Amino acid sequence: MSTHRFSERDPAPIVVLIAAMLAWLVSAVALTESTTWPIAAVVAVTAGFGLLVGAVSRAIASGAIRRGAGVAGRAAVLIAIGLVVGELAAVVVFSGSIDRLLGEQAAHTAESTPAASQAAADLDRSRTARDGLDGAVEQAVQRRQEALVVARCEFNPRPDCPQIAITGVPGAGPETRTANDFLADAQRTLDAALAERDRQAAVLDSQIADGERAVAQARQEAVADADRGLGARWVAMNDHTLADSGAFVMRLLVDGFFVLLSLLPLILKLWRGETSQDRVVAADVERDRAELHADTAIAVKRAEVRAAIDTMWAEQQLASARMAVEAQLEIDREEQRRRVIEATEPAVTARSERIPQTAIEDVYLPIAAEAEAASLLPAELAPAVVDDASEDDGRSVERSGRPLIPAIPDVTRAAARWIRPLVPPILANAIDTTTKPLRGMRQIFEETEEIHISMRRTHRVSSHIEEAEEAGQATEPVSPTTSRGDDRAELAGSSTRELRGRRGPRELPPGR
Fold it and tell me: What is the domain range of residue 483?
């Protein structure tokens, strides 16, 4: 309980809040001095920076902390954040010196701009012309003054007069007149220089004033266009602190303060140790991780089951398709074989014509006569001798001569021989079945049950079916027998004949 209360009184969030507020304030002041953005934009951008610093500090200082590399990594991130905020604070602290250095650099740079150079050249030419006028006037005044001294000393020599320029003879003479002529010429030169200066002085003075204003404007523009952004201010601050040891120490103190402020939540976290809140958070994280692993395992298992089911269905469809293809191939092969047989058999030509009734009666008369003769013939023959041993065996019959009672197949074969040439081939094939009343067909049914576990059972059924067509009431249907071919029907008795076969229900052969 005491640990939980201590966690509720954790000062780390307060320290994080203070660090975030200071980061916001320092960045706002630095951005205001280095840009011309509106206050609202500056506040919005710097508020985001402060929130970022607070969020990173809170995230690093919260949660479980592992000793060693984990603490070193978190401390490195907090130190980097503290250095960034400290450098911004140093830019704010040395703002006056930074402005002075930036102004000097801008003024020095302004002299090399094209506009300032052109304005300075024009100003220099105007000043040179104005100085030339003043120099001409001064030179004319100096020559007049020298000519005046020579003229006076030539007329009245004195000790202080230049002895080289005069003759030393007082009074008027040729030398005196020459000196007066030089004096008059110097006066005329002075008057001309003064007149020239008075004529051009106003224009030159105006040009000089315009040139000075142009140079000043060009320098102001160059200074205004100089880089005063945050990077330039930091470079100027760096130059100032490296040039001045006191400023460098102050910079280190500012950086150290903000680094310590950034590391303080982590230090407090390490000091107070693990709390109940940290254990609850760790338990929640572990629970979420376990649930995520379970969901992942379930999803993977379901995917594997779906893949197995899809594979089984695909294999079943493939097997069904193969069986269908094989069956279709077998059907096509059988149809082709039948077509080949039909094509290779000789064609039977038949002539179709209408037969009158009298001709039909004439055709059936020989058939009836032969049938009647066949019915009377057995009475004239001797009775058949039956072997008792064969009767007991029930599998074979011996005939001596023709049977006593005429067989229906004999009658039908005789009739078919007369009718076959008169009908089409398809009807002739149908009539031909009367000559072969007994046909055998063998069918084999194979059932396979395959169990994928460990057992395989095969059940094969083989049946032999014999069919006989009815012709009146003289013949009885022959019962189907099993696949053993030695079981046959036989004729029993001396006077009357009947078909006797194996008695009892139909049986299947034993399975393998």
Answer: 357-500
